[in-house]
Amino acid sequence: xxxxxxxxxxxxxxxxxxxxxxxxxxxxxxxxxxxxxxxxxxxxxxxxxxxxxxxxxxxxxxxxxxxxxxxxxxxxxxxxxxxxxxxxxxxxxxxxxxxxxxxxxxxxxxxxxxxxxxxxxxxxxxxxxxxxxxxxxxxxxxxxxxxxxxxxxxxxxxxxxxxxxxxxxxxxxxxxxxxxxxxxxxxxxxxxxxxxxxxxxxxxxxxxxxxxxxxxxxxxxxxxxxxxxxxxxxxxxxxxxxxxxxxxxxxxxxxxxxxxxxxxxx
Length: 266
Hints:
Blueprint: H1 2-8, H2 19-35, E1 46-52, H3 54-57, H4 65-73, E2 76-81, H5 97-106, H6 117-126, E3 134-140, H7 143-147, H8 163-177, E4 182-187, H9 193-197, H10 207-221, E5 224-227, H11 228-231, H12 251-262
Parallel strand pairs: 1-2, 1-3, 3-4, 4-5
């Protein structure tokens, strides 16, 4: 991780101005790891499926969120992210999250575009060997639901055209088919775009309304929740340390998210 950052962002490049502080920071890190090392759960008997938008699907290398989780825990991971897509079904989205879940559980991937990561990851999951392993599903949607102005809630709690309804329907389908699986919802994190998420589009609300919807759905459906907005240290002063463009996580941000998810493996 340190080498990757040195080679790309030059975060750790030494100069006469910063060498003392960099040395002190590195010494502190080494001492902390020696005295209080983080112990990650053993995931060697676990298959983890990642569902989501570009936060999940845009990166598939060793510093993608799924691969960080795999490296830290030994779990097998399946990246079923679909960049630019929403949880809800809308005019700009051919596949809602519940439709992707249906395809995963049934093995019918005919509606999945074969040149997208959602198909590649789903195909690998459907064709995996040793299907008796423990299952975990990690779900991250929200930024596209928000920017498309899709409704946060609906009178029908399982309305696939609303953000909350689409998440509920997907979770219900997963619970019905995989009752022993762990399900982890991720609350959308900090962004700088659209007035830091304060702008409202069409029938939607502020980004915070979508965040609160994830928290509420997790409580109501009895699933795990990682609040990337509250638990990640990203803010208006330091966002460029964790985000590449004001929305998508950079290497440091993806590594940190991966660590948080890894620690939630049962």
